[in-house]
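tokens incoming
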């Protein structure tokens, strides 16, 4: 059954690839109308998240952001399917790295570089990073329950030379690389909600008490890695620009939770500029501090 589902997914993506992305955005427009007005997919979650994050905004402004978000996430869905068979030439046309010299400086020194991303703009397309940086790239992921979807996303993320690594195996791989003098850059999606029994640190993020993952901080301190934040901008539909920002050069010298706090503040500043590009439909605040 899972293999049959995988073949269906591949059939859809191959069909999508016969059409230019400009035409596929008509499919995205249909997705938007269906998900927002008919299915009302997670509308209550999205509305509540937006209102709690921006209590100063009137409902009319919240609804404007909400609609822009649903349009954007529909684009992401189409782009992800399209990316499964996109050509190298088109990726290089649609993605640009503003300051590749920042990560490359540390990689040339033989350092491990850990990059923190959020679910902001098209995070899946960043799995093509190895096309732009001459190094080993590890997109860190959580295996999916569905073997078909897990196989689909693994293939998608590894198409352009990246090596996807299970989040439970990433430290072992980076430690081995460090011992052997192999520099690499790894990408962590760092804005999800940790399980309650794993919560060790809370901060105020988007006007709410928020439990934070400490994976980036713990791993970078053990390796004395460089930590960068990656901001993905969307200059226009179907085009993305990546900018790196230094969080710390020497993780082991940072005070407890400082890396996590700096990273959260950086992501918050990005979201506030263009809130419609963040993944408001995920349940980021399902745990409350007072419950502990």
């Amino acid at each position: 059954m899972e293999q049959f589902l995988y073949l269906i997914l591949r059939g859809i993506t191959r069909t999508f690839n016969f059409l230019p992305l400009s035409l596929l955005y008509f499919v995205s427009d249909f997705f938007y109308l269906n998900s927002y007005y008919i299915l009302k997919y997670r509308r209550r979650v999205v509305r509540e998240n937006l209102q709690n994050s921006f209590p100063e905004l009137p409902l009319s402004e919240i609804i404007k952001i909400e609609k822009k978000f649903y349009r954007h996430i529909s684009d992401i869905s189409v782009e992800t399917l399209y990316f499964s068979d996109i050509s190298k030439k088109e990726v290089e046309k649609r993605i640009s790295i503003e300051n590749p010299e920042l990560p490359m400086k540390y990689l040339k020194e033989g350092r491990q570089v850990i990059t923190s991303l959020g679910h902001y703009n098209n995070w899946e397309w960043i799995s093509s990073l190895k096309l732009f940086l001459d190094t080993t790239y590890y997109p860190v992921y959580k295996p999916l329950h569905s073997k078909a979807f897990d196989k689909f996303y693994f293939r998608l993320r590894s198409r352009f030379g990246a090596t996807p690594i299970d989040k439970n195996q990433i430290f072992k791989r980076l430690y081995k690389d460090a011992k052997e003098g192999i520099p690499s850059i790894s990408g962590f999606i760092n804005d999800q909600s940790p399980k309650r029994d794993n919560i060790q640190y809370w901060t105020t993020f988007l006007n709410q008490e928020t439990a934070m993952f400490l994976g980036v901080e713990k791993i970078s301190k053990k390796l004395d890695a460089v930590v960068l934040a990656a901001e993905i901008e969307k200059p226009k539909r179907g085009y993305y620009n990546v900018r790196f920002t230094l969080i710390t050069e020497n993780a082991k010298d940072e005070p407890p939770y400082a890396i996590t706090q700096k990273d959260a503040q950086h992501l918050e500043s990005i979201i506030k500029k263009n809130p419609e590009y963040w993944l408001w439909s995920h349940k980021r605040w399902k745990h409350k501090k007072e419950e502990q």
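note: The chain has a mean pLDDT of 95.
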